[in-house]
C-alpha cells in the first residue's frame, strides 16, 4: 500500500513541476497525470482486495438469483500455501413458512399476469401469458390444461371459439425443495369481431356459395354487398418497385462500366505512349545529330508519321498524334514554347513532361549539349522499357499459375484414380 501512495506522491510532484517549469511540454504533463491516476486506481484495488482477504463469511444471494461461483486462494499453516479453491455458493435457503409466503404471493401475481390482454378469466378471447418464473425468479411454474382442443400448451387459442368454453388450468409452483398446485378456471369466449371482420365473413360466405354452384364455367365475384360496392384486385408481387430497382442497378452498372472502360482506355493509352517514348527520343537525337534544330526535327518526325498513317502503313499512335497537335497549334498562332509545354501536360506522363522541359529549355536559351541530353534520356528510356517488359512477363507467368495448377490436379486424378480402383478390385 505504501509503495502505491509513494508513487502517487512522486507523480503529483512531477506533474506540478512540469506545469510550472516546462509549460511547453504538455504531453509530459498529461502523462504524469495519467500515471498518477493509475497509481490511485491501483491503491483503491489494493485496499479492496486487502479487505476481502481473511474474510470469514460470504453473503448468499436472494432466492431466485441462483448460485454464484467464487474463487479463493487458501493458506493454512503447514498444510496449504496459495492453494486455489473454487466452489459454488447456493442462494439463501428459505424456511417452510417463508416458502409458503412465496407461494401465496406467486398465486396473486399469477392471477394478474396470466390474463395478458384479456379483461378477466371469464372473458378470454386471446392468448394467455404463462410465465415460467414468479416472484423475481424465486418460484418456478409449469402449466397443464384440461382441454388442449381449446388452448395450446403455451396458452394461445388453437381455433376461434364460437361459444363459451370453460377450461381448468393447473399451475405447479416450485420454490427450492417445496412445491404446490394452484388450480383455477378460465372461460374462452368468441372474439368480438369488428365491422371489417363481419363484412369479410359475408364475402367469404358468398364466395363459397358461388364456388359450390354446378355447371358453371366461371366464379362470379360479388360486386355489391349490403349496398356497398366491392372492387376486386388480385394480389400480386409489386413488380413496379422491382423494375425501379432494376433500373437503378442498370444505371449504376452503366456508369461504373463506363468509368471502368475509360480507365482501361487511359491505361492502354499510357502503355502505348511509354512504349513509343524511347523511339521518339531516339529519332530526335538522330536528327539533331544530323544538323537539324529541334523544331525541324519535330516537324519531320510528326509529318513522317502522318504520311505513313494516311497510307495505311501503321495504325494511329497516341504520342505521335500529340506531336501533330503541337504542329497544328503552332500553325494556329500558339507560341512555340507554349505548344511544347501543352504537349507535356496533355500526355500526363512524367517522361513526356521531362522531354517537354528539355525542348523548351533548348528553344528558350539555346542550351548546348541537347543531343547529349537526349542520348542519355534515350538510354534511360530503353532501360525502363526493358524493365516494363520484364514485369509484364512476370505478370503473365503469375496468371498462368492457376491453369497450370488445374492441369496438375487433372493429371494426378487421371493417374491416381485408376490405380485406386485397381487396388480396390
Descriptive key words:
single chain, 425 residues, alpha+beta, four-stranded antiparallel sheet, two-stranded antiparallel sheet, 11 helices, 8 strands
Question: Describe it for me?
Answer:
- With 425 residues, this protein is α+β, with helices and mostly antiparallel strands.
- Among the domains are: 2-50; 96-188, no CATH class; 262-388.
- The protein is 58% helix and 13% strand.
- The chain is built from 11 helices and 8 strands.
- It has helices at residues 2-21, 26-52, 96-113, 195-211, 239-289, 294-310, 318-331, 336-347, 350-365, 370-399, 401-424; strands spanning 68-76, 80-89, 133-134, 139-145, 165-175, 178-188, 224-225, 228-229.
- Strands 3-4-5-6 form a 4-stranded antiparallel β-sheet, covered by helices on one side. The protein has a two-stranded antiparallel ribbon with strand order 1-2. It has a two-stranded antiparallel sheet with strand order 7-8.
- A hairpin with a 4-residue loop joins strand 3 and strand 4.
- Helix 5 packs antiparallel against helix 10 and helix 9 packs antiparallel against helix 10.
- The longest helix has 51 residues, at 239-289.
- It is elongated and about 120 Å long.
- It starts with a helix and ends with a helix.
Amino acid at each position: 500500500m505504501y509503495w502505491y501512495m509513494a508513487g502517487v506522491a512522486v507523480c503529483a510532484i512531477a506533474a506540478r513541476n512540469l506545469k510550472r517549469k516546462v509549460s511547453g511540454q504538455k504531453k509530459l504533463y498529461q502523462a504524469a497525470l495519467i500515471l498518477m491516476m493509475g497509481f490511485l486506481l491501483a491503491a483503491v484495488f489494493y485496499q479492496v482486495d486487502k479487505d476481502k482477504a481473511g474474510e470469514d463469511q460470504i453473503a448468499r444471494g436472494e432466492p431466485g438469483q441462483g448460485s454464484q461461483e467464487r474463487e479463493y486462494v487458501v493458506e493454512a499453516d503447514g498444510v496449504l500455501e496459495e492453494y486455489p479453491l473454487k466452489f459454488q455458493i447456493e442462494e439463501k435457503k428459505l424456511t417452510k413458512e417463508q416458502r409458503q409466503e412465496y407461494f401465496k404471493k406467486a398465486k396473486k401475481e399469477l392471477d394478474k399476469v396470466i390474463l395478458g390482454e384479456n379483461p378477466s378469466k371469464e372473458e378470454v378471447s386471446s392468448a394467455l401469458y404463462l410465465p415460467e418464473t414468479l416472484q423475481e425468479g424465486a418460484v418456478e411454474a409449469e402449466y397443464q390444461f384440461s382441454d388442449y382442443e381449446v388452448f395450446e400448451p403455451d396458452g394461445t387459442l388453437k381455433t376461434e371459439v364460437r361459444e363459451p368454453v370453460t377450461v381448468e388450468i393447473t399451475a405447479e409452483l416450485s420454490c427450492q425443495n417445496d412445491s404446490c398446485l394452484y388450480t383455477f378456471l378460465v372461460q374462452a369466449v368468441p372474439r368480438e369481431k369488428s365491422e371489417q371482420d363481419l363484412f369479410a365473413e359475408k364475402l367469404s360466405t358468398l364466395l363459397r356459395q358461388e364456388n359450390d354452384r354446378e355447371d358453371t364455367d366461371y366464379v362470379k365475384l360479388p360486386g355489391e354487398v349490403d349496398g356497398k360496392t366491392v372492387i376486386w384486385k388480385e394480389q400480386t408481387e409489386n413488380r413496379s418497385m422491382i423494375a425501379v430497382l432494376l433500373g437503378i442497378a442498370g444505371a449504376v452498372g452503366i456508369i461504373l462500366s463506363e468509368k471502368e472502360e475509360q480507365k482501361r482506355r487511359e491505361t492502354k493509352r499510357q502503355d502505348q505512349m511509354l512504349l513509343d517514348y524511347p523511339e521518339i527520343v531516339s529519332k530526335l537525337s538522330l536528327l539533331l545529330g544530323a544538323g537539324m534544330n529541334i523544331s525541324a526535327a519535330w516537324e519531320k518526325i510528326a509529318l513522317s508519321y502522318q504520311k505513313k498513317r494516311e497510307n495505311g502503313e501503321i495504325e494511329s499512335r497516341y504520342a505521335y498524334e500529340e506531336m501533330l497537335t503541337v504542329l497544328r497549334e503552332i500553325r494556329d498562332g500558339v507560341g512555340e514554347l507554349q505548344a511544347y509545354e501543352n504537349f507535356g501536360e496533355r500526355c500526363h506522363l512524367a517522361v513526356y513532361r521531362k522531354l517537354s522541359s528539355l525542348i523548351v529549355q533548348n528553344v528558350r536559351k539555346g542550351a548546348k549539349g541537347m543531343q547529349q541530353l537526349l542520348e542519355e534520356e534515350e538510354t534511360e528510356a530503353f532501360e525502363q522499357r526493358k524493365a516494363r517488359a520484364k514485369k509484364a512477363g512476370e505478370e503473365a507467368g503469375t496468371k498462368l499459375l492457376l491453369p497450370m495448377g488445374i492441369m496438375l490436379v487433372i493429371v494426378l486424378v487421371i493417374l491416381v484414380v485408376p490405380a485406386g480402383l485397381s487396388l480396390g478390385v
